[in-house]
Amino acid sequence: MQYSDVVMDHFKSPRNVGKIENPDGTGEVGNPICGDMMTITIKVKDDRIDDIKFNTFGCGAAIAVSSMVTEMAKGKKLEEAMKITNMTVAESLGGLPKNKLHCSNLGADALHKAITDYYARKEGKGREAKDTEKVEHIGKRKGKCYCPYCETGLPEPTPLCTRCGKPTLQSIADSATTKGAKKK
Amino acid sequence: MKVIYLDHISGNPLHPQVKEAIIDYIKKDGFGNPVSQHSIGDAATEILEDARVKVAQLINSEPQEIVFTSCGTESNNHAIKGVAFAKAKKGKHIITSNIEHQSVARPLRMLSQMGYNVTSVSVDKYGMVDPSDVEKAIRDDTILISIMHANNEIGTIEPIAEIGKIAKARGVIFHTDAVVSCGNIPINVNEMGVDLMSIAANQFYGPPGIGALYISQKVKILPLIDGGVQESNRRAGTPNMLGIVGMGKAAELARAEMPQRTEHLLKLKKTIMDRLGTIDEIVVNGHPEKSLPGLVSFSVSYIEGESMMMMLDEEGVSISTRSACASGSLRTSHVLIATGTDHATAQGTLVFSYGIDITVEDIDKAFEALRKSVAFLRNMSPLYKKE
Predict the structure, then answer these.
(1) Of the partner residues A55, A62, A166, the one whose CB lies closest to the CB of residue B330
(2) Could you read off the pLDDT of B155-185 as tens digits, one per residue?
(3) Do the beta carbons of residue B331 and residue A160 sit within 8 Å?
């Protein structure tokens, strides 16, 4: 098996599985076509993450990442939780196989989206915030798409890269393609 | 914990008599090189030719039409490149299907980059090639048709005899990749009308790393590995005698035991199908009747295959998944996509492949583990709506 002991532990006994009823914030990333989809729901009390749960469709790495990010975020102040990155999650898991670093390691993105959603709701924007979020579902996306293997942006949204056939990323599409564009 | 091995398509365990045959050969100090002209060389030649006869009998060919290779992949490469290079002056068009193994698809891709034209016919939802599509694709410059006998992911058995007739009528060389079918279902190269056929021993309880290519006496192809007179100048290199001894024994046993083996496999298949029927939202892939007895492919909705495979592995059940996440290349199975399966469903695809060493009790234990992991992972899945 290609996974570390910590990954296997979180995969076998995942922490915080489920969905909070009437959450204060919801974050959703990925899509089933790419193979990974995560939904994180949070309850916030005094600017702290009081409770957090996840639902994940995905490989062993995706499940372990989800479990780890909820454990890392639980009880943390919101601003601290925002500092958790995909990379620190992967490090806490004792590393992830290289090919999984890109596609399955979206836990922090889901967490950040849940927190952003919480702030948006607090400001009274309600669920409108969803439509302005950085990460979108594949069907809705009109603009860019990014292949982490070719390290290029793709003009058309596609679940699999048109050059190499590997899954593309929706979540870091914006930042990555902008970088690519600047280079040119 | 006894591991229940349901990944026979990756390689069958050695038959006890195959093990014995190999050990016997080692004990008899089997080191002779069949090329040598002295008595020790002659002894090796005798063993080599005996194995060749046994493999030939398995597919109803002449012994001199069997060339030993290192595996099914080499056989496929040999057949395709061997024809392409030998017939380049006649034409550069090759016909294949959308569901071939990579060891056919990749050499063809290489050839297309070298100026050959490749037409790939599509398949129906069962993964079945329509022979009339193949006929329509034939051009004046078509030199080769390569269509697999049975598919390694979904088990569908292709109408090879019909395609063989078309190929013969149009004078086109016909190759079939019979790696997963040979030794498991009856094969007669004459009735099937094939000129070239790839075989691998580890698919019928022989050792890994040994295969064969059937080359009809009627066709001339170039060698893939050159530089020696072995295998009548068709495959250079010192033969893998340990493998060949094992393959010969395995071929002999496959031929003798095939009816009993098939009966056992079909019983297991029925058990699997019955058990699958008790789990919600599962799609069985491949043709309902024309399919290998020892393989069932199915897709479990709302779950990704690698996580199922890992959970089953923890429970002592070895299976394989066609999920992109577990493929190393992170690529969705081209076979499932060709049959019209959507990407999300393809992600939840498992393959149970089993053999004579597996019992109905093993299948029941595997299903206990499967049921557990499906419930656990669906409960975790944001796509599964619990009602």
Answers:
(1) A166
(2) 999 999 999 999 999 999 999 999 999 999 9
(3) yes
pLDDT value of position B342: 86
Nearest-CA distance from A142 to chain B in Å?
A: 20
CA distance to partner chain B, nearest, from residue A13 (Å): 10
Cβ–Cβ gap B310/A14 under 8 Å: no
> Which range is least confidently modeled, A47-51, A127-131, B134-138, B261-265?
A127-131
Chain B residues with CB under 8 Å of A57 CB are: 302-304, 380-383
Q: For residues A136 and A170, give the distance between their C-alpha atoms in angstroms, rounded to a whole number.
A: 7
> Nearest Cα to B10, choosing from B334, B305, B262, B353?
B353
B328 interfaces chain A, CB cutoff of 8 Å: yes
Shortest distance between the Cα of A113 and any Cα of chain B, in A, equals: 16
**H-helix or E-strand containing A40?**
strand A36-45
Dmax (CA) of chain A: 48
| pLDDT for residue A161 is more than 90 | no
SS3 A50: strand
- Determine the length of chain B: 387
Can you tell me the mean pLDDT for A114-133? Answer: 71
Q: Do A160 and B379 touch (CB under 8 A)?
A: no
pLDDT at A8 over 60: yes
Across residues A103-124, what is the average pLDDT? 89
Tell whether the model's pLDDT for residue A156 goes beyond 90: no
The per-residue b/e assignment along B236-258, b for 16 or more CB within 10 angstroms, e otherwise, is eeebbbbbbbbbbbbbbbbbeeb
Strand ranges of the sheet holding B282-285, from the earlier edge strand across to the other edge: B282-285, B295-300, B349-353, B320-321
Q: Provide the residue count of chain A.
A: 184
The 3-class SS string of chain B reads CCCEECEHHHCCCCCHHHHHHHHHHHHCCCCCCCCCCCHHHHHHHHHHHHHHHHHHHHHCCCHHHEEEECCHHHHHHHHHHHHHHHCCCCCCEEEEECCCCHHHHHHHHHHHHCCCEEEEECECCCCCECHHHHHHHCCCCEEEEECCCECCCCCEECCHHHHHHHHHHHCCEEEEECCCCECCECCCHHHHCCCEEEEEHHHCCCCCCCEEEEECCCCCCCCCCCCCCHHHHCCCCCCCHHHHHHHHHHHHHHHHHHHHHHHHHHHHHHHHHHHHCCCCCEEEECCCCCECCCEEEEEECCCCHHHHHHHHHHCCEECEECCHHHCCCCCCCHHHHHCCCCHHHHHCEEEEECCCCCCHHHHHHHHHHHHHHHHHHHHHCCCCCCC
**Is this model's pTM higher than 0.90 or not?**
no
